[in-house]
Amino acid sequence: MYHVNPLRFGPVPRNTDAADVVGDIFFDMFEVLSVPLACADPTIPASKKPFECKNLESTDPTDVLNKVTLDVDSRYSGYAMCNIGSVNGTDPMGRPCTPGGYCCYCSAPHEQATEQLTIGYAPSAAPYPPSSAPCNATVGLETLYNKWGPESEEKNQQPCFKDYDCWTKRSGDKLLTKDSPGLWYSVLEYGDCDEHPEPSPNCTWRVHSVDKIVNGTCHTGSFFGAVRKAAPEAFANCSKTVNTTDPCWVRGFYEAVLGPGRAQDRQRTDAG
């Protein structure tokens, strides 16, 4: 599995979220690559900035991408949202979280879809924070196709108001299929078998190997470079050097990957 975190936390995913290959690429396109557009948009007040602007995992300059192999008890439980606490002592949802440390929250079952389907700057977004429920020691699992795939009615009913909102909303249409649905995992510290004498019902995962650690800036730059090589016309008006924070490069990337016309809300286009 793969997971992104600031270098200081190390490669082992304790109290963090992780993903398979498809899930990790989706995370990049859904929450990371749009940051230069979404968070610098002067027309949106700070209180209304989308989730990724508050996600310290998406914006830390020391981010690394870790590839690890875990031995896991496959009796998965509900997915937990694990985030880094802000200086104000809250996670991006406004829930208590130690500043600079990870904390994980599991949502009440009836609120999971609402919590994770709020897209960008939407006046109709559900109030935060959602209700929480106790987490289990078992690894949490989220199948992304069900909530962000092309057939997700809840996702398709949510409007997008900015090009970056529409691109993140449409990323699942491009990446997620029934055969490769994309998976997100939540790996909680108290399920780590090294923390428990064996046998223990709370021993649900252990590290098999740390396979690779890649600098986040290098990873994103290589990603952009590969897309430009495949679709140079999308970057024709951009600087010659790859720049993952340049709005021209970000827009070129999404247009190349998702195709033209994906920056508009399909609902409004169909209606008008």
How is this structure best described in words?
- 29% of the residues lie in helices and 20% in strands.
- It has 272 residues and is of the alpha+beta class.
- It has one domain.
- It has a four-stranded mixed beta sheet. A three-stranded antiparallel beta sheet has the order 1-3-10.
- It is globular, with a radius of gyration of 19 Å.
- It starts with a strand and ends with a helix.
- Mean pLDDT is 87; it is low at 110-127 and 267-272.
Which short descriptors sum up this protein?
alpha+beta; four-stranded mixed sheet
Secondary structure layout:
Elements: E1 2-6, E2 16-19, H1 21-32, H2 35-38, H3 56-59, E3 63-72, E4 77-78, E5 80-84, E6 102-107, H4 112-116, E7 132-133, E8 140-143, H5 145-148, H6 153-157, H7 163-175, E9 183-187, E10 205-215, H8 216-230, H9 247-258, H10 266-271
Parallel strand pairs: 4-8
Antiparallel strand pairs: 1-3, 2-9, 3-10, 5-6, 6-7, 8-9
